[in-house]
Amino acid sequence: MNNIIWIIIAFVVYVAVMIVIGTFSYKRNTNLSEYFLGGRNLNAWVAALSAQASDMSGWLLMGLPGAVYALGTGQVWIAVGLGIGTILNWIIVAKRLRRYTIVSGNSITIPEYLENRFHDTSKILRIASAIFIAIFFAVYTASGFVAGATLFEQIFGLNYNLSLVIGVVFILAYTFLGGFRAVCWTDLIQGLLMFAAILLVPIVAYATIADTALLPVGFTDVLGDGAGGTQSAISVVSQLAWGLGYFGMPHVLVRFMAIKSDKTVRKSAIIAIIWVAVTLIFAIITGLVGKMALVDLADSETVFIVLIQRLFLSEGAVAYAPLLGGFFLCGILAAIMSTADSQLLVTASSFTSDIYKNALHKGAGDRHLVWVSRVSVIVIAAIAFIIATNRTSSIMGLVSNAWSGFGSTFGALVLLSLYWRRVNRAGAFAGVISGGLTVIIWDYIPVGAGETLAAATGVYSLLIGFIVSFLFTVVVSLVSAPPSKAMLDEFETVRGAADVDALADPNRSDSAFTPDRRE
């Protein structure tokens, strides 16, 4: 049978399973808590793999191996930073954020949590947070669409724009129908598929086609810059700073909010940390094996795809190898879809709950809002589609900019909101605005000789944005009025209560726990 037919069969089976899950979840989404948090009922495996699969995206199978293929192991510091960030996020953020979002009005989005946490009756903090989420997720989702289009273009020889349309339609189908529950269960399957693909492909490649090849001199120097020189300390620190982004990623944090119980958090953390450690290590190995086996790829970010083509889809491949290769290619699609669907849903939830219901239609019921969310998913996808039509866009570049945006806008504030009782509404607003604007200025606005500050200094904007946001939050909180007694009481409840789950009402997203917010 023609190899393309085997690939099509694998893709059809994979996508059909995703659609079935979305359809099955459709009837269960009767309110916002169900559509956006799955009723706060995720088990350990679903929570862990959904969080990490939605986190890593096509960057794991295309961006990171491509960076190592092009520049050597000097690029591993990003993976080290992400590994450390993942561990810290699960250990110090997951459990306490889950508890705090229950205590603070059973919040279902990060902007709503910030509003409830700081008793912001003005709605400004919530709306500002939602706007930054929309801006940075449009860029982040576009990176997934670019990865999907590249995959279809490379495998099927299709026109880039047609490939882009196909990928967007696949992702929209089950996100539109199933909401958070469908996204999380599909992420579980996709996380397992990604794990199998990134583990097996480089092992098989090394055993069959790369065992006699050699790497270029200096290629394995972890301080090398890919051009025979040594990386600066700024470059290494900037790569490690990627780990700071985790504390502000809405699509990861929302998984913590949806975990079934405090006990489940610990189990999820163990699963997630093992998954991340293994996949990051083998993504790096993929880049190295690819460099040994493949010479002068026109696009380094296709190294994983080309390895699969050589191993399973070339002439002389063993029986059924093309079908297996098709499923490994589905691993790339899984990495793309598992992140893009989460980004679409989180952005839609933020628009619906934090802007539409909060400012435009306060009396809207849950069924009405679920449909507003579904329409929002389509609109947001259309914006990301337009960004992705720029064929010169780099997956790594788009992910880097969006990652920095979220980490800078929310990272420091999320940590302070969970562990510092003195932080207040004014400090929170200052942290969000200063962090978000710092990234926009640093990455996008030319200064001096026409270069951006990022290009001129070589410093990753996340490092600067996180520090700026942290300082503004702390300083403004200290020079303004202290938190109210009600805010302090909630803080102590989260820190000391044995069980906060009784405060969560899955049928109401805005009144399960309504503290006195009079200042």
Features:
single chain, 519 residues, mainly alpha, Sodium/glucose cotransporter, 18 helices, 0% strand, globular, disordered C terminus
Quick structural gist:
The protein is mostly helical and 519 residues long. The chain has 18 helices and no strands.
Rg value: 22 Å
Number of domains: 1
CATH topology group: Sodium/glucose cotransporter
- Output the CATH homologous superfamily: Sodium/glucose cotransporter
What is the tally of beta strands? 0
Count helical runs.
18
Distance between the termini: 72 Å
Give helix % range: over 70%
**Helix/strand order:** HHHHHHHHHHHHHHHHHH
Q: Given this structure, which CATH class is correct?
A: Mainly Alpha
CATH architecture: Up-down Bundle
What fraction strand?
under 5%
How would you describe the oligomerization state of the chains in this entry? single chain
Identify low-pLDDT runs.
505-519
Q: Give the overall pLDDT as a whole number.
A: 81
Shape: globular
Describe the main β-sheet briefly.
none
Structural class per helix/strand content? mainly alpha
Topology diagram in text:
Blueprint: H1 3-26, H2 32-37, H3 44-71, H4 76-103, H5 110-117, H6 124-156, H7 160-208, H8 233-240, H9 250-258, H10 262-293, H11 303-312, H12 321-360, H13 366-388, H14 395-419, H15 425-444, H16 453-457, H17 461-479, H18 485-496
Helix pairs in contact: 1-7, 1-12, 3-6, 3-7, 3-9, 3-10, 3-12, 4-8, 4-9, 4-10, 4-18, 5-6, 6-7, 6-12, 6-13, 6-14, 6-15, 7-10, 7-11, 7-12, 7-13, 11-12, 12-13, 14-15, 14-17, 15-17
